[in-house]
Amino acid sequence: MCLAIPALVSELLPDDMAKVSLDGVTKEISIAMVEGVKPGDYVIIHVGYALSKIDAEEAEKTLALLAEAGALQGAAE
Amino acid sequence: MTTPATSFGPGAIALTVTVAPPAEGGDVEAVRVASTRPVGFSSALFVNRPADEIPALVGRLHSLCGLSHATAAAMAVAAARGEDATAVATTRFDGLLAERLGEHLRSTFLGPAGTPPGEVPREMLADLRAVLAATRELAATTAEPIPPPARRAAIGRARAGLERLGLALDRAGRLDMPPASWAAGVVERFGAASGDRHLAPDPLTAADDEIVIAALAADPTGFAAAPRLADRRPETGPLARAGAGVGGGERIVARLAEIAGAGRLLDARSQTRARALDAWVRAASIDSRTGYAAVESPRGRLHHLVRLDGIGRVAFYAILAPTEWNFGADGPFVATIRANRPTADDAGRAQVERIAAAFDPCVGFAVSVEERGRA
Q1: Which H or E run contains B235?
Q2: Which stretches within B179-315 are classed as H helix?
Q3: Alpha-carbon distance B355 to nearest alpha carbon in chain A (angstroms)
Q4: Span A7-35, average pLDDT
Q5: Coil, strand, or helix at residue B324?
Q6: Higher pLDDT residue, B174 or B277?
Q7: Which of chain B's residues have a Cβ under 8 Å away from the Cβ of A68?
Q8: Which residue of B has its CA nearest to A43?
Q9: Distance (Å) from the C-alpha of residue A10 to the closest C-alpha of chain B?
Q10: Are the Cβ atoms of A45 and B8 closer than 8 angstroms?
Q11: Which of A43, B35, B74, B122 lies 20 to 30 A from B197 at CA?
């Protein structure tokens, strides 16, 4: 079940990488697949890659849904 | 030998293969598929909500195949109400095509057959990004249809990028890959030359829907986590849809052919699209408040089942995803590993990773190949 996990981009790194934060945990991901990502954007992540950008309102709705389902527990581990 | 889990999301699959010591023949003795993905969350989230909210919610929740999920939900709800479910899919067909195309392309680029993004030539990465951006535009889950000029432009960008990647069909509908193209390179690295043995698929089809839905209704959590059909080993996805093919190269060729085929269908005549859609989606009413839908999502046949209460709210909801069939305890991935001879070293781990990637699970996976007694 491929759930969508939005994460907030906090910093751009060399080589199409970026730092994101999710539920208080910071991770490095690849943003090679998506153009125009910048700090402050929300991106949907899958196996270490940003799949797409989504707006903040949509991200917050999704995070609220995932929290309701309990699916965020351990998401950033 | 173990690869680190690459998951940054809710769950992953751990694939553990145990082999006999070389002195005893090195046979595969056990294949364990352990999933940490959430199960049954759809019931917890959707029950008591108005049915009209579900397609958008389910689309938002799924990262990879949101439109397939949203379409399955909308069709299942329509079927439960006794409404025309096919009309729901007709308006979304561009999106379903784009989603299949984009998912297969992205997954192949990022999998063992692809090239790490850091090593991809810039012009190739630009083509990939252009195609993926066009597919995201076409597969947006918003209610507003894309305006015709923007639609034509997005289709044009997608098809031009696919052609540069070597993903086009010839007049007979066969994959036509220029020898030096990215697509030809994928087949060379990942296909028959890899030496992996692949088994003929036992396709999960529309003829199986009724028995699948009955089993899902009887045990929504258990069956959704571990689906099975008596005396069968159903497979779903590109090779199963192709309906034929045995041999190392066929599984990846089937996926690449679906990318090119979806690109062509975006531009096809309405009769051709209607025939394709007919095989792509199906929905039916079970009783006056219960309906189901099956959608051929990128990774295979996806089932949604819904029962409504007397005021149009969801009383029951279940989702069965295609990865569960392919990575079942006795499913086609496990059978394929048993048909091969991975060794407890880097080469064996790479082989298991390659085979797992050929089945393309919808979550990250970690592979471990262990010699019995040395785990």
Answers
A1: strand B234-235
A2: 182-190, 209-218, 220-225, 238-242, 250-266, 270-280
A3: 18
A4: 91
A5: helix
A6: B277
A7: 44-45
A8: B63
A9: 16
A10: yes
A11: B35
The percentage of chain B sitting over the pLDDT mark of 70, rounded to a whole number, equals 92
pLDDT digit string (tens) for B145-170? 788 999 999 999 999 999 999 998 88
Distance to chain B for A49, nearest Cα, Å: 9
Interface of A with B (CB under 8 A): 1-5, 7, 15-16, 22, 27, 29-30, 32-35, 44-49, 51-52, 58, 61-62, 65-66, 68-72, 74-76
pLDDT exceeds cutoff 60 at B5 = no
Helices (H), B281-321: none
**Residue B78 in contact with partner chain A when CB distance is under 8 A:** no
The confidence score (pLDDT) of residue B3 equals 39
pTM (two decimals): 0.92
AA identity, residue B81: R
Q: Alpha-carbon distance B228 to B331, whole Å?
A: 8
Which of A4, A22, A52 faces B60 most closely, judged by CB atoms?
A4
pLDDT of A76 above 60: no
Q: Are B30 and B17 in contact (CB under 8 A)?
A: yes
Q: What is the pLDDT of residues B77-127, one digit of tens each?
A: 999 999 999 898 999 999 999 999 999 999 998 877 666 656 778 888 889
Please choose, from the candidates B331, B306, B330, the residue with its C-alpha nearest in 3D space to the C-alpha of residue B318: B306
| Strand B281-287 relative to strand B234-235, pairing | unpaired
On whether the CB atoms of residues B105 and B159 are closer than 8 A, the answer is: no
ipTM for this model: 0.85
Q: Which residue of A has its CA nearest to B128?
A: A33
For A9, which DSSP code?
A: E
Distance CA A33, CA B62 (A): 18
> Among residues B357, B213, B233, which one has the least CA distance to residue B286?
B213
CB < 8 Å to B7, chain A: 47-48
SS3 of B187, please? Answer: helix
Nearest to B76 by CA among B271, B185, B216: B216
